[in-house]
Amino acid sequence: MPGLVEADDHRLYALKWVGAAQGRKALVAEVLAGELGRRLGLPVPELVTVDLDPVLARSEPDQQVQDQMRASGGTNLGMAFVSGAFNFDPLCFEVEPELAGQVLWFDALIGNVDRSWRNPNLLVATGGLRLIDHGASLIFHHHWAGAAGWIRRPYDAGDHALLRARPDVAAADKLLAPLAEEALAGAVAQIPEVWLADEPGFDSPDAVRAAYLDQLTARLAGPRDWLPEVSG
Ligand SMILES: Nc1ncnc2c1ncn2[C@@H]1O[C@H](COP(=O)(O)OP(=O)(O)O)[C@@H](O)[C@H]1O
Ligand SMILES: [Mg+2]
Fold first, then answer.
1. Nearest CA to 106 among 22, 214, 187?
2. Residue 30 CB–ligand 1 contact under 6 Å
3. How far is it, in rounded angstroms, from Cα 217 to Cα 204?
4. Whole domain around residue 115: which residue ranges?
5. For labelling, which of 41, 188, 197, 215 has a CA lying 20 to 30 Å from the CA of 182?
6. Do 21 and 92 fall into the same domain?
7. Ramachandran angles phi, psi of 70, nearest 5°
8. In angstroms, what is the span from residue 122 Cα to ligand 2's centroid?
């Protein structure tokens, strides 16, 4: 679970711990996917890095949170806290087919397995829907040697949270595909260098950035085997 923290800019953030079991790759996925989504015009709350001094753990009463803080000194990920938000429920909230299609297209591109109706990772607040929690996307980065096999892998949208909204995926492809290359380059540049350092098989953080870019650019440039056909 993320922590709720107030940073020295006096704003509240949902904080994802760099020392959590999912590790820094989950944070890389959050930043790359989140920044990509925002550049495509999707409603992703602002992402920031939060520098955590582990000495703060001393005043944390909960033992588990304390351990997490101790393990998470340095650069963590913060997502702007959306106050007064509800967790999305497909039976209670209406989403336009256009937006639903765009979210589904985005999830298919990044291979996001965490947008099911059971666990939508969508918030509803003033101003509408917000997309959160992209840490389980881009799974190819857990096994770079086999990453090429992911490029055309179909996205399984069978449980997707927005299926009931009759997502217009074809319109989304037309709208978003032309924007995606530039958006990707911008998003990849936002990944903090410390989370890319010492990646086995790569000489430098920039080499890892290039690999993410190549991987997603190839998915975009190729046939739409990865894009499910669900339309209203
Ligand atoms: N930016 C945010 N604003 C408000 N609530 C949030 C925010 N991020 C997460 N939450 C709340 O915390 C829950 C867990 O966050 P999430 O990012 O999905 O982490 P995980 O599922 O990996 O534990 C969400 O379902 C939501 O209720
Ligand atoms: Mg979640």
1. 187
2. no
3. 20
4. 86-226
5. 197
6. no
7. -60, -35
8. 9
Asked if 221 and 153 sit in the same domain, the reply is yes
Evaluate: CB of 204 within 6 angstroms of ligand 1. no
The model's pTM is: 0.97
Instruction: Determine the distance separating the centroid of ligand 2 and the alpha carbon of 158, expressed in angstroms.
Output: 18
Whether residues 206 and 119 share a domain: the answer is yes
The number of beta carbons lying within 10 Å of the beta carbon of residue 207 is 12
- As residues whose CB is below 5 A from the ion ligand 2, the structure lists 121, 133
Could you tell me the distance, in angstroms and rounded to a whole number, from the CA of residue 14 to the centre of ligand 1? 7
Is residue 232 domain-resident?
no
Residue 76, classed as helix, strand or coil, is: strand
Together in a domain, 76 and 90: no
Task: Verify that 75 and 91 share a domain, yes or no.
Answer: no
Task: List pLDDT tens digits, range 57-108.
Answer: 999 999 999 999 999 999 999 999 999 999 999 999 999 999 999 999 999 9
